[in-house]
Each structure stands twice: as C-alpha cells, then as structure tokens.
Amino acid sequence: MKVIIRENASEGSLWAAHHIADRINAKKAVSDKPFVLGLCTGSTPIETYAELIRMVKAGEVSFKNVITFNMDEYVGLPEEHPESYHSFMHKYLFDHIDIPAGNIHILNGNAADPAAECEAYEKAIEAAGGFDLFLGGVGEDGHIAFNEPFSSLSSRTRVVTLTYDTRVVNARFFDGDWKKVPAQAMTVGVATVLGAREVVILAFGHKKARAIKDAVEGPMSHYCTLSGMQNHPNGTIVCDELSVGELKVNSYRYFKAVEAAENL
Questions:
Q1: Which of 3.40.50.1360, 3.40.50.1580, 3.30.70.270, 3.90.550.10 is the CATH number of 2-262?
Q2: CA 83 – CA 106 distance, rounded (Å)
Q3: What value does the CA radius of gyration of the chain take, rounded to a whole number of Å?
Q4: Minimal CA–CA distance to 75: which of 231, 197, 183, 175?
Q5: pTM of the model
Q6: Which of 41, 59, 110, 234 is the most exposed, fewest CB within 10 Å of its CB?
Q7: Mean pLDDT across the chain, nearest whole number?
C-alpha cells in the first residue's frame, strides 16, 4: 500500500485525476478493451472530477472506451432526486464528458428485488472484465463505500443499513436533517472494491485523520474497512497534510521518502 501526501486537497485531487487519465491512456495504447473504472460520490471527489472534465475537453483523455460502475446508491430515493447518486454523477461528471450512456452503471435503489439487483451488479462487473481501477473515498470512521464498521472484508454488493453517524454526516446534503437521509443503501462490498487491479482512495481533511491512522498503522480489521487496503497489491491512499496528522512521524517520513525515491 502506498500513501501519497500532498499539501492540500486540491493538490491531491489533481494527482488523482492525472493518475486516472494516465491509466486510461496507457491501456488505450496497448488494447482495444474498455477501461473499467469504479467511481465514488460525495464532496471529496468533486475536484478530481472537475480536472477530468477539463482534461477531456482539452483532448488529454477520452472516456469513449471507459465503462464505469459507481460504488453505491440510496434505497428508495428517486433517481431524479437532487441528492441521488445518479443525479450527483451526471451533475459533476457524466454530463460533461464523452462517455457513452450505455457505459454508465449505477445501482438501482428503487429495484423491485434489491437482492437480485445487487447480484446482477456483481455479474455485470465480472462480465466487463473486472475493475482496472477503483476510485473511492473514506468515511470518518474508516468505511469505504457504505461498508460501515464491522462489515465483512469478504462482502460483496448488497443492501445495508446506514448507521446514525453516517446519516448525520450526510445530513448536510438533506437540509441538515439526518432523518431525511435514507436509512438504507445498496453498496459494493469490500471485496468488490479490493478485487480491482488498482485501488485509489481519497482522504482529505483533519476529520479523516483517525481513519487514516487506523487503516495504515492499525491491524487489518472489519472495524475499519479501509484497512483491507493493507492486503491489496496495488493500493494507494491519496491524502493531504491534515489527514495524515495522526500518523507516527516515522510512518509519515517513510511514505514521503518512498515517493521521492520513485520520482528520481
């Protein structure tokens, strides 16, 4: 596992966008197969998406041969609701790039049979060839996607009940009222994310510092589902200075030194 540390969230977001574009372009240079990309929502990836939009418009990367799968979606929230993840992704990315509509996959939170929808989603990921890269964020308690603490590290796409803490954090998108946040969501599992050939997790701000400490220096545990990254052969956590504030000094120095050596 690598930890990339940048001065602030903007610099970290730009690093992630350029890394994703580089990976898409690298596969395009050697293969006609689509690049399969996992995507997340929330405030954290917005700057990364903005830079990807700029790069598409500048001709620096294309999404014409990219297939996307999103991490999650609320259960029971209409797709046209401004806070649905369908709406989010179109607002902040899909409506501004050259991705074919048929290449976009987001869980249907209003499916008549939620379990069948989750099973079909897993099969669709497999049929696409699996993830080349999964871009995610992390919650303040160390969860990835909606895999709350104590989710199995071998979990797959399923319906989950959201904790009170998660609903409170997301209340800022629902007029500040946590009761308006749906109580359930569909989410890819920890194993679904970690099954990607490459995983990039964004973590910015002091509120993520404890999660980063637990994931990087603590044991691999279902208590902090991000800690599953410890066992991934090609995983990177992109942080700013605030989010690494609780790491040991020697841990911080190690990751900075590794990146410096790789850039020689």
A1: 3.40.50.1360
A2: 14
A3: 18
A4: 183
A5: 0.95
A6: 59
A7: 96
